[in-house]
Specification:
55% of the residues lie in helices and 14% in strands. It is of the alpha/beta class and 132 residues long. It has a single domain, classed as 5'-nuclease (Rossmann fold), CATH 3.40.50.1010. Strands 3-2-1-4-5 form a five-stranded parallel beta sheet, sandwiched between helices. Helix 7 links the parallel strand 4 and strand 5. Helix 1 crosses helix 2 and helix 5 packs across helix 6. It is globular, with a radius of gyration of 14 Å.
Length: 132
Protein backbone atom coordinates (compact mmCIF):
# COMPACT_ATOMS: atom_id res chain seq x y z
CA UNK A 1 0.00 0.00 0.00
CA UNK A 2 1.55 3.29 -1.08
CA UNK A 3 -1.33 5.65 -0.26
CA UNK A 4 -4.13 5.61 2.26
CA UNK A 5 -7.06 7.95 2.86
CA UNK A 6 -7.21 8.99 6.53
CA UNK A 7 -10.66 9.44 8.08
CA UNK A 8 -11.48 11.40 11.22
CA UNK A 9 -11.53 8.23 13.32
CA UNK A 10 -8.08 7.23 12.05
CA UNK A 11 -6.57 10.63 12.82
CA UNK A 12 -8.11 10.72 16.29
CA UNK A 13 -6.90 7.27 17.28
CA UNK A 14 -3.44 7.98 15.87
CA UNK A 15 -3.03 11.28 17.69
CA UNK A 16 -4.30 10.38 21.14
CA UNK A 17 -2.57 7.67 23.15
CA UNK A 18 -5.14 5.62 24.98
CA UNK A 19 -7.51 5.65 22.01
CA UNK A 20 -8.69 2.15 21.10
CA UNK A 21 -6.51 1.66 17.99
CA UNK A 22 -3.65 4.05 18.79
CA UNK A 23 -0.84 1.49 19.01
CA UNK A 24 -1.91 -0.46 15.92
CA UNK A 25 -2.26 2.69 13.81
CA UNK A 26 1.05 4.11 15.02
CA UNK A 27 2.82 0.87 14.09
CA UNK A 28 1.15 0.83 10.68
CA UNK A 29 2.31 4.38 9.94
CA UNK A 30 5.92 3.55 10.74
CA UNK A 31 6.18 2.62 7.05
CA UNK A 32 8.17 5.61 5.73
CA UNK A 33 6.92 5.47 2.14
CA UNK A 34 3.22 5.57 3.01
CA UNK A 35 1.50 8.67 1.63
CA UNK A 36 -1.49 9.88 3.64
CA UNK A 37 -4.41 11.60 1.95
CA UNK A 38 -7.20 13.40 3.75
CA UNK A 39 -9.69 16.16 3.02
CA UNK A 40 -10.55 19.58 4.34
CA UNK A 41 -13.91 18.12 5.39
CA UNK A 42 -12.15 15.45 7.46
CA UNK A 43 -9.99 18.13 9.09
CA UNK A 44 -13.12 20.14 9.90
CA UNK A 45 -14.77 17.09 11.45
CA UNK A 46 -11.57 16.28 13.37
CA UNK A 47 -11.28 19.83 14.75
CA UNK A 48 -14.89 19.68 15.93
CA UNK A 49 -14.33 16.30 17.58
CA UNK A 50 -11.16 17.46 19.34
CA UNK A 51 -12.82 20.65 20.54
CA UNK A 52 -15.71 18.63 22.00
CA UNK A 53 -13.35 16.22 23.80
CA UNK A 54 -10.32 18.42 24.51
CA UNK A 55 -10.09 22.15 23.71
CA UNK A 56 -9.55 24.73 20.95
CA UNK A 57 -5.79 24.94 21.49
CA UNK A 58 -5.36 21.19 20.97
CA UNK A 59 -7.58 21.24 17.87
CA UNK A 60 -5.55 24.11 16.39
CA UNK A 61 -2.22 22.38 17.10
CA UNK A 62 -3.39 19.12 15.56
CA UNK A 63 -4.73 20.87 12.45
CA UNK A 64 -1.51 22.82 11.98
CA UNK A 65 0.60 19.68 12.42
CA UNK A 66 -1.39 17.69 9.84
CA UNK A 67 -1.41 20.53 7.31
CA UNK A 68 2.37 21.00 7.64
CA UNK A 69 3.27 17.30 7.42
CA UNK A 70 5.12 16.50 4.19
CA UNK A 71 3.63 13.00 4.03
CA UNK A 72 0.05 14.30 4.15
CA UNK A 73 -1.81 15.43 1.05
CA UNK A 74 -4.85 17.54 1.98
CA UNK A 75 -7.48 17.51 -0.76
CA UNK A 76 -10.27 20.02 -1.16
CA UNK A 77 -13.39 18.96 -3.06
CA UNK A 78 -14.74 20.88 -5.99
CA UNK A 79 -18.41 21.77 -6.39
CA UNK A 80 -19.15 18.69 -8.51
CA UNK A 81 -17.71 16.40 -5.84
CA UNK A 82 -19.77 18.12 -3.18
CA UNK A 83 -22.92 17.56 -5.29
CA UNK A 84 -22.03 13.87 -5.79
CA UNK A 85 -21.42 13.49 -2.06
CA UNK A 86 -24.78 15.07 -1.26
CA UNK A 87 -26.49 12.75 -3.76
CA UNK A 88 -24.76 9.74 -2.18
CA UNK A 89 -25.81 10.94 1.29
CA UNK A 90 -29.44 11.14 0.12
CA UNK A 91 -29.16 7.75 -1.59
CA UNK A 92 -28.06 5.91 1.57
CA UNK A 93 -30.81 6.56 4.17
CA UNK A 94 -30.25 3.06 5.55
CA UNK A 95 -26.66 3.88 6.50
CA UNK A 96 -25.34 6.19 9.20
CA UNK A 97 -22.89 7.90 6.88
CA UNK A 98 -22.05 11.51 7.57
CA UNK A 99 -21.79 13.94 4.70
CA UNK A 100 -18.04 13.92 5.34
CA UNK A 101 -18.01 10.13 4.89
CA UNK A 102 -19.83 10.49 1.57
CA UNK A 103 -17.41 13.14 0.37
CA UNK A 104 -14.50 10.92 1.41
CA UNK A 105 -15.94 8.07 -0.70
CA UNK A 106 -16.34 10.36 -3.72
CA UNK A 107 -12.81 11.72 -3.38
CA UNK A 108 -11.29 8.29 -2.83
CA UNK A 109 -12.86 7.11 -6.08
CA UNK A 110 -11.47 10.12 -7.95
CA UNK A 111 -8.02 9.55 -6.49
CA UNK A 112 -8.28 5.80 -7.10
CA UNK A 113 -7.62 5.00 -3.44
CA UNK A 114 -8.94 1.67 -2.18
CA UNK A 115 -7.84 1.76 1.47
CA UNK A 116 -8.88 4.01 4.31
CA UNK A 117 -7.36 4.40 7.73
CA UNK A 118 -10.66 4.35 9.60
CA UNK A 119 -11.94 2.64 12.71
CA UNK A 120 -15.62 2.68 11.81
CA UNK A 121 -17.36 0.31 9.40
CA UNK A 122 -18.72 2.90 6.95
CA UNK A 123 -15.82 2.61 4.50
CA UNK A 124 -16.18 -1.18 4.41
CA UNK A 125 -19.94 -0.81 3.84
CA UNK A 126 -19.15 1.32 0.79
CA UNK A 127 -16.71 -1.28 -0.59
CA UNK A 128 -13.33 0.08 0.54
CA UNK A 129 -10.68 -1.75 2.53
CA UNK A 130 -9.84 -0.39 5.96
CA UNK A 131 -6.82 -0.54 8.20
CA UNK A 132 -5.85 -1.24 10.93
Amino acid sequence: MDACFVDTSGWYDLLFAGSPEHDRIKKLLDEPSLRLVTSTYVLDELASLIMSRKDHHTAAQVGAHIRAAAEVQVEHPDAAEERRAWALFLDRPDKHYTLTDCLSFVMMRRLQLTTALATDHHFRQEGFQTVP
